[in-house]
Amino acid sequence: MRIRLDKYLADMRIGTRSEVKKSIQKGMVSVDGEVVKKPEYKIDTAQTNVFFQGEPVGYETEEYYVLNKPAGVVSATSDPKDTTVLDLIESKKRKDLFPVGRLDKDTEGLLLITNDGELCHRLLSPKRHVDKIYYAKVEGRVTDTDVALFAEGIEIGEKEITKPGKLVVRKSDDISEIELTICEGKFHQVKRMFEAVDKKVIYLKRLQMGTLRLDDQLQTGAYRKLTEEEIRRLKEC
Ligand code: URA
Known about the structure:
With 237 residues, this protein is α+β, with helices and mostly antiparallel strands. 21% of the residues lie in helices and 29% in strands.
């Protein structure tokens, strides 16, 4: 792909378009070893080496991160008062990243962040039924009856009942612990499914989306880039 030098630098968040124009004109940018002072100079993003103040920039067309979302952070690209999941991705280069789907502010766990719109569409399309696995602590004793009800689909006040959910009870007690696999992403779906059987989710964490699993090493609030293999497998979901 061939793009203007000022766009190349702005895309990689070196500065705004007008800031990088000024930097280029001041001679702060070199291309393949030569200082270039023309913002309109055309760059081949795959081949050319661009340096800003002597540091290599490197162009990324697509970025893929997995974040272990902490509670208290919103799944949005910007917010007037709350910290967003994008604020946590400090090493991001692109400015067009977004979270693939939403987790509630108080939900933790796996969130994919990318600028790959096609992958986002594949993963969220209601037609594709991509599995999402959640771990939850639930107030009340989760029983085999709940397991059977979830397997049939739950009435949560939508036009249709939910698709079947696979409910695995890890601990059945006053506070139960469960894992739930669902293939939809309706608003507050997990919380509403439990409300429908008179129980309350008091802690919720997403463990998996499609083939992408949250690894134990990724602390709450931490993120990492996806491997090529993880990206390839997600694209096959
Ligand atoms: N279901 C919920 O209720 N909340 C989430 O954040 C995700 C799924």
